[in-house]
Amino acid sequence: MKHLSIQLKRPGIAVFDFTSCEGCELQLANKEDTLVDFLSAVEVVAFREVSSEKGEDYDIAFIEGAISRQDEVERLRGIRERAKVLVSLGTCACFGGVNRLKNAFDLEAANREVYGDKPKETLPVRSVSEVVAVDLEIPGCPVNKEEVERIVQHLMVDVPYSFPLYPVCVECRQRFTICLFEKGRLCLGPITRAGCNAPCPAGGLGCWGCRGPAAVANYEEFFALVRERGLMREELIERLSFFGAFEDAVSCCPL
Amino acid sequence: MATTLIDVKVHHLTRVEGHGDIRIRVEDGKLVEASWEVVETPRYFEVMLKGKHYTTAAVLTARICGICSIGHCLASLRATEQAFGVTIPEAARKLRLLAKHGETLQSHVLHLFFLAAPDFLRLPSVLPLLEAHPEIVRLARDLKGLANRLCDTVAGRTTHPVSLEVGGVARMPDKRDLTGLQAELRASFDNLRRATDLFRIFSIPDFQRETEFVSLKGENTYPFIGGRIMSSDGVDLPEADYQAATNEYVTENNTSKWCGLSRDAYAVGALARINNNHLFLHPEARDAAFVLGLLPVSHNPFMNNFAQLVECIHVTHESIRLIDEVVDMAANAPLMAEVVPRAGEGVGAVEVPRGILFHHYVYDERGRILKANCVIPTTQNNANIHLDMGPLVERFAAEGMSDSQIELLCSMLVRAYDPCISCSVH
Asked: Across the interface, which of A49, A113, A203 has its CB nearest the CB of B17?
């Protein structure tokens, strides 16, 4: 790949998975129309899910998943030492994701419930940045491959990437999606960071906030809107807690 | 001291979803150890589900798996609908099945080309093929791209769908998009034929171990969503009695549970489905099975690769037919049934790409989950993989295979089951 007619070095990328569904790394193998270009622009050094190569010399390490066991903590620290740039890939890595719902329960009781008298080792779920220093966070459940491609391009030419400051609502307007609130349903679009192109409101599910708070999120206005539409506090708190990305909003929810 | 020794340790096997280890030891031609251990970090989904509202269950359980999230979503919705006594409208039933087929196609193509094929070509991954055989990568890319677009169109998104909800589906896809996809599906048979020609030259290890195969039971069609459970050893149970079929138990060394039915272990997945329901395959899929040498009932676990390819042909035919039926439906055909939560419990069984999946929820009268249980296909396969490994190693160690050959063979065995390990440990 050339940039301003200068031949760029192909960055060595590595993908590592922790506590997650591995859906975000799967996105790296998606978007078939540009997949070949993407794979030609980078050098895949380690990517356990698709390759048996196990290189240790990489520039960019993508970390998928939350951290929930001691061996994961140690593995992550080792990767941090080797990586020039460490990127949290996806909502689990950025915020803990749905895994964080586990933290609301007593872990011993949880273990008994699932494994009976043979409990397995587990820690309270943490995001990657709660364990090591992170250079960049790409949220999304799953991540949007187009955005990942753009970010990798930015990393290659060393130009900072900026996420949209505005919330998901803007992208719903752009694609003429009827507002979920107009249908009497809850949506976190007004307070969630855009950049996903709002597939969930368009599909009927509404926004569940996987990308975390928008820079300009106005919680007060949002809570007022929820109250005005007569939506339930219980549902709102369940939604805000879902990806572990709105702990600040949960704590200041006046409803 | 042992004169001949085979000693294989694979930590975090590659080209599978999730984390598992292989351990093989043969001394003086005698098998000392052959094990498959799942070491994935547990996530405790059954605990997370407690207290959640019925509208949250499918959104949450979709996150069990990044590859078969549509399948999890469908099993979850069915469990909830069974609990509340909801029958979904015909259009919703067809659209859900279409999304299911898209996922089967997407997942099978991913496994066949990206995860399994490199072993047969003696490559570390599919990436070197970009240079050597770009036409194979293009073939895989085209088939997978089409499958993903089918999922996106019907379910709103392939990974973690957004248009499937309790009571039905949220929206009718644009019918022009569906007919466009239908034309592409018709054209994709050329690619599927090329894929069959490619895979038929792959030599699969000559290995058999008599196995019990468990799947949904086809009544008049090849089964995908709901119905009775059957096994090749003669078990026949209603969906709601899934616990009598799966018998999950916890072992010391695995974060995944193990299962067993009439024997110590059983197998689920494409091969189990074809072994149990081959009479209901589309004739062209059956022809492909014949060409690939897959003759039911096959007890060769490596045949699961070919079974997946046969299913790709079957679901492509089925999708074309379903799109015709959906497009012919009235514009105002209902998509959602009324949902009134009530106290009760329900089970949803769905044939997802890797085998039969069960979700089971107990609800209180407000529609909040009191207790949840999910039994995953790979959880059901893990004990069988482990038990295959010993006889496999014994058979080929006797032929004088080296450590690296044994390692490749055992890795291929695990990959043949297309395990979804993080799923199995949910």
From this structure: A49
Write the burial class of residue A139 (CB in 10 Å: 0-12 exposed, 13-18 middle, 19+ buried).
buried
Find the CB nearest A26 among B48, B159, B255: B159
Helices (H), chain A: 23-28, 32-41, 70-82, 91-95, 107-115, 145-156, 168-174, 199-203, 219-228, 233-241, 247-252
Is the minimum CB–CB distance between B69 and chain A shorter than 8 Å? yes
Residue B378, both tokens? 């790979």
Query: Is the ipTM value over 0.85, yes or no?
Result: yes
CB-CB contact of B65 with B384 (8 Å)? no
Query: Looking up tokens 């038929």, which residue turns up?
Result: B200
pLDDT at B275 over 90: yes
Minimal CA separation from A4 to chain B, in Å: 26
Q: Which residues of B touch A114 (CB under 8 A)?
A: 42, 44, 46-47
What is the pTM for the complete model shown? 0.96
Is residue A135 within 8 A of residue A20, CB to CB? The reply is: no
pLDDT, residue A156, reads 86
Characterize B227-266 residue by residue with b for buried, 16 or more Cβ atoms within 10 angstroms of its Cβ, and e for exposed: bbbbbbeebebebbebeebbebebbeebbbbbbbbeeebb
Residue B324, CA atoms < 13 Å, CB-side half-sphere: 8
Q: Write out chain A residues lying below 8 Å of B148, CB-based.
A: 30, 32
Question: Any chain A CB within 8 A of the CB of B149?
Answer: no
> Does the pLDDT at position A255 exceed 90?
no
CB atoms within 10 A of CB A178: 10
Cα B226 from chain centroid?
Answer: 15
Asked if A110 and B118 come within 8 Å (Cβ–Cβ), the reply is no
Closest CA to B385 of B331, B425, B332, B421: B421
Average pLDDT for chain A? 92
At residue B22, the 3 state secondary structure works out as: strand
Nearest CA in chain A to B125: A51
What one-character DSSP code corresponds to residue B203? Answer: P
State whether residue B343 sits within 8 Å of chain A by CB.
no
Helix (H, G, I), strand (E, B) or coil at B5: strand
Cα distances (angstroms) measured from residue B78 to each of A129, B71, B225, B268, B350: 38, 11, 9, 20, 9
CB atoms within 10 A of CB A245: 27
Among B124, B156, B159, the residue with its CB nearest the CB of A23 is B159
Q: Residue A224: CB partners within 8 Å, gap ≥ 6?
A: none
| Cβ contact, residue pair A114, B42, below 8 Å | yes
Residues of A in contact with B255 (CB under 8 A): 120
Q: What is the pLDDT of residues B72-91, one digit of tens each?
A: 999 999 999 999 999 999 99
Instruction: For chain A, positions 136-175, list CB contacts with chain B under 8 A.
Output: 141-142
pLDDT at position B3: 60
